[in-house]
Amino acid sequence: MGTLIAYSSRYGTSEKVAALLAERLSGDVRVQNIVEEPNVTWETVDHVIVGSSIRMGTIQDEMKEWLTLHEAHLLEHPLALYLCAGTPTESERIRELEEAYRDTLREHAYFVEVVGSGYDFERMGFLDKAIVRMMAKQKESSLQLDDAKLNQLVETAQTSERTRSENP
Question: How much is the pTM?
Fold first, then answer.
């Protein structure tokens, strides 16, 4: 039994965060790209961390469908939710979190945050590059993660796991 880090990522930022979290978490951790592998063996999961990226103000359709399909299971486990989004203001981050994750999931989760942003120009198509250059004023690949929030997620996840194992 262990931790499932389920993510979707268009250009790799959410994937990088999932890998970082897996390195920092103790115990049995499985990282799963839900676009490539949407099925979950819930009997092997104690704890869930879900992450997604924002593109054009929304998460990927595959993640929306996955969250809806697995909502009952997610609500049965300790849950953390993260987003990777380049929104500059707190009010925009809150809005994106509210639009990405349903109220029931956000209220159940012990962690709900935007943990940073990134732009991988090598993986972007021409149109996406043009949009990022214009809207985000980015001209090259970058990765800006909030290490304090990532550490907070790891710490609370490990506390959640200890609490669960001590009080089955």
Answer: 0.81
